[in-house]
Design brief:
three-stranded mixed sheet, globular, 133 residues, 7% strand, mainly alpha
């Protein structure tokens, strides 16, 4: 029987940049959905923008075929930035809040990020980590 500490150590050894990217994107989406709900009716718009594949150094630990996919099909960082800037600054989005955009197009929020309990735990833990809770 292995201990939890032993399992955590094994998990840390297998941790990759792609896992970090996936986890951070998930946390950003959960946090954005939760923030939009908390600010509903305040006049502040909160949306989540996922620019999809972007050419960067993040997938450097990925297997060669995946690195090639990023290199060949990924958008430039400038193009990916434009997706977020458009949603944040364009008047067409001024009254839009609580939405999820992929490459500048509104999409359904992935179900995994709509769980209220998960979002609440992330919010509470984030507040605690920055000294607000």
């Amino acid at each position: 029987r292995r201990s939890a500490a032993s399992a955590a150590t094994r998990s840390e050894k297998k941790y990759s940049s792609l896992q970090r990217l996936q986890m951070s994107k998930g946390a950003i989406t959960c946090f954005g959905v939760e923030l939009a709900q908390r600010l509903e009716g305040s006049g502040v718009a909160v949306n989540v923008v996922n620019p999809e594949l972007t050419k960067s150094t993040l997938p450097k630990e990925a297997p060669l075929p995946l690195r090639l996919v990023f290199a060949l099909f990924g958008a430039s960082p400038e193009k990916s930035k434009d997706y977020g800037v458009t949603v944040a600054c364009d008047d067409a989005f001024a009254k839009v809040s609580g939405k999820y955009f992929r490459k500048g197009i509104e999409k359904p929020i992935p179900e995994v990020y709509t769980d209220q309990a998960v979002r609440g735990r992330l919010w509470t833990e984030s507040a605690r980590l920055v000294g607000l809770g």
